[in-house]
Amino acid sequence: MRYSTLLGKTLRQPPSDAETISHQLLVRAGMIAQLGAGVYSMLPLGWRVLRNIERIVREEIDGVGGQEVVMPVLHPRELWQESGRDGKMGGILFRLMDRREREMVLGPTHEEVITTLVRQNVQSYRDLPMTPYQIQTKFRDETRPRAGLIRGREFVMKDAYSFHADQDSLDATYEAMKGAYTRVFERCGLPSVMVEADSGAIGGKGSHEFMLLASSGEDSVLICSSCGYAANGEKAEFVKPAGVTEAERAMSEVHTPGKKTIAELASFLGVEPRQTLKAVFYVADGNMVFVTIRGDLEVNEIKLKNALHATELRLATDLEVTAAKLVAGSASAVGLTGFEVVCDDSVTMGTNFVAGANKPDYHFLNVNYPRDFQANLLLDIALAEAGAKCARCADGRLEVQRGIEVGHIFKLGVTYSEAFGANFTDAEGAERPIIMGCYGIGVSRLVAAAVEQNHDDRGIVWPPAIAPFQVHLCGLNLDNADVAAAAGTLYDGLRAAGIDVLFDDRIESAGVKFNDADLIGIPLRVTVSPRTLAQGGAEVKRRTEREFALVPLDELVAGVQQRLAGS
Ligand code: ATP
Ligand code: MG
User: Fold this and answer.
1) Residue 28: in which H helix or E strand, if any?
2) Burial of 71 from C-beta contacts in 10 A (0-12 / 13-18 / 19+)
3) Position in ligand 1 atom list of the atom nearest CA 407
């Protein structure tokens, strides 16, 4: 490809709204272009990266028995009503009307469509297992599209679905997928971490996410340095610190002027945070929920959301709190009626807690569960934080890292087959629902995640396996006929050897060309100029190196091949 004719030019300045490095660099390198919020064109350079990732994904998913299909993007809305997700997905679903006023949905994922498709095609256990998949554009009206390709409203996903006659068969495919996913990221040159993931309110019997560790990641990943346990922060289990346990004393009231936070209260009363109870107010699907957790712990909103089987969960606003006659800073579940009360099990770990007295500037001493307050739900809703004790091994501590979720695998069970009546006849002649798994990879998100992991202060440093081109050929002083001829010969020779070359054939200074080459981040740069020709060759340099080597012109193709093979 000749740079002079390439669609998508490099930019000096990143777009003003681009906060993450991948968004900045992908736009500046001329790889993507924004059309609207969360909607991007893939320009030739970006598209080539995406296609490289797709190729690796295809090979690995085919390798574990996947069969590629393409399903429609346009779905009748009834399908989503049938599964109940029309409501559950809330605002994420893009809905539209056709000319006959039939309601349609733009597919955010394809469990509904694939289950109906398989229902029509599977009769007996002999038709199973099978693993159809597709690589396709998905639509989600995300509340906060951000970071360029990381969270788009239109994005490319590989979604696979597996169908089984029994649990063992699902388990086998699930394990094979874990392997395929690990190899996909490895082959892309993007080391990933597999973590245990939240499987949502519907329960699910197993779910893992694949994370690329990067400081800009949205997800927190907790890793035990001792046993290797790794989990999404949304799901991570940990051992809660012991509480202070003594004989229960009679409750009394204490004046605590202006002490609203746990830290203020604890230091004012000379107790530790773990001897206090914290109250947090949420609104779950429109209803106020009163949450209590020990003062040294924080609420994990995903665990809470699952416990409540809620579709939408958020903190209550100050106005809502006042309207509910709750006293922020002095609230507790003691004597409270008319609210759903959810308690973290830490309220049972310890005695004689300090808790709000439900009037301004007063707290209770010696509050005990269940003597003084009760919960509608009592379970683990606490957030694992750095340094927490690992629940899987005796002595490990959890470390927190940031990660970008690039893949998600999920044992679905029979949720969708039951909703759509996708049954099969087993060996005994009985009709049973097909057991399902689903497996996603964020293909376009990976393009950006790769940049988050692989860049320096000059630009992108593509892992060779997914780079848009393998060689960036810079001709300097191309108005010099000798250079033009030599560069043309090299361009043809490299391409004839099957090497993908981006040829910077512009009349521009060395500085401009080198800056652009560094920004674009192709693994190998070959420079030919009057100076290199005077020495009988061209300069070859890796993107990751500062030093270059002079290679004679007639050895250049071999030299490039050697370096590419070794990189
Ligand atoms: P997230 O928690 O990041 O919103 P999700 O749990 O909704 O992801 P899935 O429905 O499991 O994601 O989709 C499979 C994969 O598709 C994810 O692992 C992620 O890599 C990718 N993905 C999901 N939403 C987006 C998006 N808005 N833009 C780009 N990629 C996405
Ligand atoms: Mg999502």
Assistant:
1) helix 21-28
2) middle
3) 18
Peptide linkage before 129 cis (omega within 30 of 0): yes
Strands across the sheet containing 252-255? 252-255, 362-367, 353-356
Q: Is 140 in the pocket of ligand 1 (CB under 6 A)?
A: yes
Q: Is the shortest distance between the CB of 408 and ligand 1 below 6 Å? A: yes
* Listed residue (82, 162, 79, 91) closest to 127, CA to CA: 162
Token pair in block for residue 302: 């995903």
Tokens of 440: 């996603």
- Encode pLDDT of 142-189 as tens digits: 988 888 999 999 999 999 999 999 999 999 999 999 999 999 999 999
Give the mean model confidence (pLDDT) for residues 276-299.
95
Across the range 451-462, mean pLDDT stands at: 96
Kind and range of the H or E run holding 447: helix 443-453
Give the residue, by CA position, lying nearest to ligand 1 atom 2.
405
Contacts of 472 (CB under 8 A, 6+ apart): 501, 502, 504, 517, 520, 522, 524, 525, 526
Over 90: is that where the pLDDT of 522 sits? yes
pLDDT at 90: 82
What average pLDDT does the structure give for the chain?
94
b/e per residue 226-242 (b: at least 16 CB within 10 A): eeebbbbbbbbbbebee
pLDDT in tens, 306-346: 899 888 899 999 999 999 899 989 999 999 888 899 999 99
Ligand 1 atom closest to residue 109's alpha carbon, by position in its atom list: 10
Under 8 Å between Cβ of 379 and 345 = yes
Phi-psi region of 325 (alpha: psi -120 to 50; beta: other; left: phi over 0): left
Region 217-226 average pLDDT? 91
Nearest to 447 by CA among 49, 125, 52, 17: 49
- 142 C-alpha to ligand 1 centroid (Å): 10
pLDDT (mean) for 273-296: 95
Q: What CA–CA distance (Å, rounded) separates 148 from 469? A: 22
Number of neighbouring beta carbons within 10 Å of residue 494: 22
CA–CA distance, 217 with 8 (Å, rounded to integer): 27
In short, whether 208's Cβ falls inside 6 Å of ligand 1 is no
Q: Is the CB of 192 under 6 A from ligand 1?
A: no
d(CA 452, CA 462): 10
